[in-house]
């Protein structure tokens, strides 16, 4: 019937078609698999990784379309709180959809921020490799200098041997041996200590809190990212722009995820139930909440 209210999935699909958008385009922008977005539009929540992750996907999808994400999330939570086995009620959210002009402005702002957050990933700095070459050449020169000085000062001086006399009344002879020249002390020519390598500098370069997107710049060598989980958390990881686990994986409390990469590491996480370490330095994510978070670390 024409007067039947729309479900959450129909509401999302209607908003997407009104903007003439494809699921593949939205999936690429949000880094959410297209089958998860299709499951949201079909109200098939059993095909999602879980209720917590589904809520996060719903919030990000709704914000991208320019509709009231909080109203949709609250409506979904009210439906799940009902204990009856009947089908979910089909009703429109309490908060109206934003105007067409507001939706366009909000979507343009979100897309621009996403593009700016992903730009640092294309840069491939070479400062780290050149710095290592200069440091290695300096160490070689210092070692050659110290070795040359030691060899010049350690040459023995020639001395004439004294004649040895043996007393006739003694049956055994005692032969004197000239003393060997002692090697010069080398503590005055020891190599200068090499300063320890500086800790990498981690800088927040992009922060789109409403969309849950964070971008960091990390100075120094290869990236080493570690996640220590304190509760169940679904994670999908990209190394140098390539997915390491395309379907994601749910980690339990006490487990640890270690990722190493030469240029970039990024991941989606369904919850904030983890502590984050980058190059042995603790990193605190801003605005802690239960929404899905997308974090990117790029070597600078």
TrEMBL record:
The keyword Nucleotide-binding does not apply. SUPFAM superfamilies: lambda repressor-like DNA-binding domains (SSF47413). Keywords: Membrane, Transmembrane, Transmembrane helix. Residues 171-191 have a biased composition (Basic residues). Signal peptide: none annotated. Residues 158-170 have a biased composition (Polar residues). GO terms for molecular function: DNA binding. The chain crosses the membrane at residues 133-152. Residues 80-129, 158-194 are annotated as: Disordered. This is Helix-turn-helix domain-containing protein. It comes from Sulfobacillus acidophilus. The lineage of its organism: Bacteria, Bacillati, Bacillota, Clostridia, Eubacteriales.
